[in-house]
Amino acid sequence: MGELTHFDKDGKAHMVDVGGKAETERLAVAKGRIRVSREVFEKIQAGSMAKGDVLGIARTAGIMAAKRTWELIPLCHLLALTKCSVDFALYPESCEVEAICTVKTVGKTGVEMEALTGVQITLLTIYDMCKALDRSMVMTDIRLWEKSGGKSGEYHYD
């Protein structure tokens, strides 16, 4: 890992110059969970929430957010994503929905922030669509799951 790259020699924040870096295939996968009430979980699973298809709308929101990460995080680069997907795993025993955001590009900088942003907005959308029934939902375990490409190589969450 080494030094922080978003600060210049004088300690001022700046956007990293990636002009001299080689373009490589980049991949990042982020995951996060939201714990909901039993009632909300069952409605999500059945697709019977009054506001509509919670997971379908949350998926779209997560993809849209990943594409706009550069507008949300001040020092992120604008990237041409070649893939962005949001998938879900449902855990009935704990009433949790896990969101998995996968982002790919061919470029000079990684897509970790895009994957993490996609997960966060996916979970926030689930919260928004379900808050009328449950305001005690908890978002948790939001993390980079894996990444590849670039000079820092591979990373896998253990």
Structural class: alpha+beta
State mean pLDDT (0 to 100 scale): 92
Distance between the termini: 17 Å
Kindly give the count of domains: 1
CATH architecture call: 2-Layer Sandwich
Please provide the ordered H/E string of secondary-structure elements.
EHHHEEHEE
Strand content: 25-35%
Describe the structure.
- The structure is a single chain.
- The protein is of the alpha+beta class.
- It is 29% helix and 30% strand.
- The chain has a single domain (24-149), classed as Molybdopterin cofactor biosynthesis C (MoaC) domain (Alpha-Beta Plaits).
- It has a five-stranded antiparallel β-sheet, covered by helices on one side.
- Helix 2 runs antiparallel to helix 4 (112-130).
Give the key terms.
alpha+beta; elongated; 158 residues; Alpha-Beta Plaits
Summarize the structure.
This protein has helices at 38-46, 54-67, 69-72, 112-130; strands at 24-35, 81-91, 96-107, 138-148, 155-156. The chain has 158 residues and is α+β, with helices and mostly antiparallel strands. The protein has a five-stranded antiparallel β-sheet, with helices on one face.
Set down the secondary structure blueprint.
Blueprint (H helix, E strand, L loop, with lengths): L23 E12 L2 H9 L7 H14 L1 H4 L8 E11 L4 E12 L4 H19 L7 E11 L6 E2 L2
